[in-house]
Amino acid sequence: MSVETREARQPWILLSPALGAVALLLFVPLVFIAVYSFWLRTATGADQVGFFLDNWAEALTDEFYRDILLNTLKIAAITTLVCALMGYPAAYFIARSKGNKAVLLLLLMLPFWISYIIRTMSWINILGVSGAVNWLLTGLGIVSEPVQMLYNETTVILGLVHFLLPFMVLNVFVSLDGIDTTLEDAANSLGATKWQAFLQVTLPLSLPGLAAGGLLCFVLGAGTYITPLVLGGPTDAMFANLVFEAIITQLNWPLGSALSLMLLAVLGALVLIYNRYLGMAQLMKGLG
C-alpha cells in the first residue's frame, strides 16, 4: 500500500467509530421505521407485513394532518422569531461584558441541568388557576377570580421559548465573541455612531450565528411534543403529538412511522432550502 493511499484512508479510519455509531443509532432505526410505514394495521390490532400505501395515502391526503403540520410550522416560526428578538440582546450583552462573562455563561447553562419536563411543568405552577401569577393578581385586587392562562397556543409558544432561548443565545454569542471589537472602533473613528457601527459592522458579521440559532430553534421546536402535551389544549397539538398518539396510545406503529417520516421529510427539506440560500459553510462559520 502506497503512502498516498494510506494517508487518504487515515481520516476514514479515525472517523469509523463515530460513523459506525451514527449508522447503528440513526440510520438503522430509520430503515426499520421506513419499512414499518408500509405495513398495515389490521382490525384485530396485528400488523400485516407487506407493501401497502394506505398509511402514506392517509398521511398525505387527510386535511387533518395537513392542518396540524402547518400549525406546527407556524408555532415553530413564531418561537424562532421570539427567540431571536430576545436572544440577540442577551448574547450581545454577554459578549461585550468584561470580567463576568464566565459567570453569565454559567447562568445561561443552568437550565440545561434541570429536566426539560420539569421546566415545562413549572409553568403550571406559575400560570395555573392556583399559580403564582393568579395568586398575585387576586391578592392585589386586580382580578376578582383567577384567570385561565394555560392550555392555549400562547402558553405553548411561551414554553418553547423557555426551552429554546439558551440555544439561540449560545449560537449568537459564539458569533459575536469572534468579532474583532476594533472593527467597531474603526467605524467610530470614521464618523459612524455606535448604532451605525452596530448595524453596518457587528450585525452583518453576526448573522451566521443568528441563522444557526434560528435553524436549530426551528427544527427543535417543530419536533417537540412535550410542551404542547403539557401546556397546550385539545386544539393546540403539534405534529409530533400525532406521532406520539399513533404509536403510544393507538399502538398503530405503521401509521406513526409514516407520520414521523413525513415530519422528517418536511424539516429536512427546510434544511436543504437553508443550505441552498445561506449555505452550510456560513452555518459552520457561525458555530466556529
State the gist of this model.
The chain is mainly α and 288 residues long. It has helices at 3-36, 54-61, 63-95, 101-109, 116-127, 132-139, 153-177, 182-189, 194-222, 226-231, 239-249, 253-277, 280-287, and strands at 40-41, 47-48.
Main attributes of the structure:
288 residues; MetI-like fold; disordered C terminus; mainly alpha; two-stranded antiparallel ribbon
Describe this structure in words.
- This protein is 75% helix and 1% strand.
- Residues 283-288 have low confidence and may be disordered.
- The chain has a two-stranded antiparallel ribbon.
- α3 packs across α7 (153-177) and α3 runs antiparallel to α9.
- The chain has helices spanning 3-36, 54-61, 63-95, 101-109, 116-127, 132-139, 153-177, 182-189, 194-222, 226-231, 239-249, 253-277, 280-287; strands at residues 40-41, 47-48.
- The protein has 13 helices and two strands, in the order αββαααααααααααα.
- It starts with a helix and ends with a helix.
- The chain has one domain: Orthogonal Bundle (MetI-like fold).
- It is flat, with a radius of gyration of 24 Å.
- With 288 residues, the chain is an all-alpha fold.
